[in-house]
# Entry
Amino acid sequence: MTDPNRWKVDELIDALRESANETASLVKSSPLETVEGQAADVLTEWRDTLQLIADGAPQAREVAKNALKITD
# Structure
């Protein structure tokens, strides 16, 4: 059972990007250089990959392996 208080992935990504923008403005860097920005990018890629697999992507195993390469 999914926790009803759990954030939806898109909401979490949006919150991370907002936090990345705030952090970046404080430290005068790019939002993509923050932990929050990196986390948002990873979650976006994984969300998109899971959607491809759910939609019946051919060679789903390879699609998943490619998405996990960012963890190396």
Notes: The two ends are 31 Å apart (CA to CA). Helices lie at 9-27, 35-54, 60-68.
